[in-house]
């Protein structure tokens, strides 16, 4: 059987909110090392990769590898019934066709069990090679969210450029143009307000703002976001999940015609 | 603006 008890249940709620509009159905791959998920959006432009390590759970048991086929909208409906401070336990039998979500209130005076039907999903896993990216930028996640939202009101695509001075986001549309530059900034008080640029080669790529906007639904998971770029490769937008792992989004660039 | 790339053309199926 599989069982995972997560003291900070709100993390799971936030993960679902971040991916439920991008991916419809996906397998949660459970093994003794944790829970992993890889899924593409329906148009095969973006890919989501989630890792929740066993060590981040208060209790974790997985007797044999299980692929739990889940409709994310339905799972989100179930998790919305959990309080933000609730402890969430996931449970599934090896041969079962359901998953149980147990919610415990912080002072243990309310225990709820929600049972959800699983589905059979033929998953297509893609191999993501280890890549030395030409540019890696870490910046406040709220700042990235704001920039992407602001640019979306002006254009459909954004050119993201990284030089050793910083990262720039540019767009254009019927009403005009916009260009935002965030410079490397490591002498701020709080580490989470820093913008750091690690660069081997300047890089500039064009992406659909609609997808970048969707990724920023993960902002609540982490105060910082890491953007990794290389010429002619998908951008990686990574939100680290404290003590547990990460939520990564890969987005294919626009290609010159 | 360019054509939208497909993620499967960058990462091979396992």
Walk me through this protein's architecture.
The complex is a heterodimer of chains A (about 260) and B (about 15). Chain A is mainly β and about 260 residues long. Chain A contains 4 helices and 20 strands. In chain A, the strands form 3 sheets. In chain A, strands 6-2-3-4-19-18-17-11-15 form a 9-stranded antiparallel sheet. In chain A, helix 1 (about 10-20) packs antiparallel against helix 2 and helix 3 runs antiparallel to helix 4 (about 210-215). The termini of chain A are far apart. Chain B is mostly beta strands and about 15 residues long. Chain B has strands at about 5, 10-14. The N and C termini of chain B lie far apart (about 30 Å). The interface of A and B includes residues 40, 124, 254 and 256 of A. Strand 10 (about 125) of chain A pairs antiparallel with strand 2 (about 10-15) of chain B.
Blueprint (SSEs and pairs):
The complex is a heterodimer of chains A (257) and B (14).
Chain A (H helix, E strand, L loop, with lengths): L1 E5 L3 H10 L5 E7 L2 E7 L5 E8 L5 E4 L3 E6 H8 L7 E6 L5 E7 L6 E7 L8 E2 L7 E6 H12 L4 E7 L2 E8 L2 E8 L12 E4 L3 E6 H7 L8 E6 L5 E7 L3 E7 L2 E2 L2
Antiparallel strand pairs in A: 1-5, 1-7, 2-3, 2-6, 3-4, 4-19, 7-8, 8-9, 11-15, 11-17, 12-13, 12-16, 13-14, 17-18, 18-19
Helix pairs in contact in A: 1-2, 3-4
Chain B lengths: L2 E2 L7 E2 L1
């Amino acid at each position: 059987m599989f069982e995972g008890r997560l003291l900070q249940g709100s993390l799971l709620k936030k993960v679902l909110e971040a991916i439920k509009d991008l991916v419809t159905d996906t397998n949660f791959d459970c093994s003794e090392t944790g829970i992993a998920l890889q899924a593409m959006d329906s148009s095969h432009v973006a890919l989501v990769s989630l890792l929740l390590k066993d060590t981040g759970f208060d209790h974790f048991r997985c007797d044999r590898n299980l692929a739990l086929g889940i409709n994310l909208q339905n799972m989100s409906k179930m998790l919305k019934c959990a309080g933000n401070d609730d402890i969430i336990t996931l449970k599934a039998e090896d041969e079962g066709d359901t998953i149980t979500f147990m919610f415990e209130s912080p002072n243990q005076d309310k225990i709820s069990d929600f049972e959800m039907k699983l589905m059979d999903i033929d998953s297509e896993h893609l191999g993501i090679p280890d890549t030395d990216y030409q540019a890696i930028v870490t910046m406040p996640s709220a700042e990235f969210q704001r920039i992407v939202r602001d640019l979306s009101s002006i254009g459909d695509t954004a050119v993201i450029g990284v030089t050793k001075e910083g990262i720039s986001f540019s767009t254009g549309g019927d009403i005009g143009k916009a260009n935002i530059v965030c410079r490397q900034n490591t002498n701020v008080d709080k580490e989470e307000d820093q913008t750091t640029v690690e660069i081997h080669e300047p890089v500039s790529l064009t992406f659909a703002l609609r997808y970048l906007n969707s990724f920023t639904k993960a902002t609540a998971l982490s105060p910082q976001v890491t953007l990794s770029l290389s010429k002619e490769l998908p951008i990686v937008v990574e939100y680290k999940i404290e003590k547990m792992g990460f939520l990564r989004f890969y987005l294919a660039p626009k290609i010159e015609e | 603006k360019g054509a939208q790339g497909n993620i499967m053309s960058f990462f091979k199926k396992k």
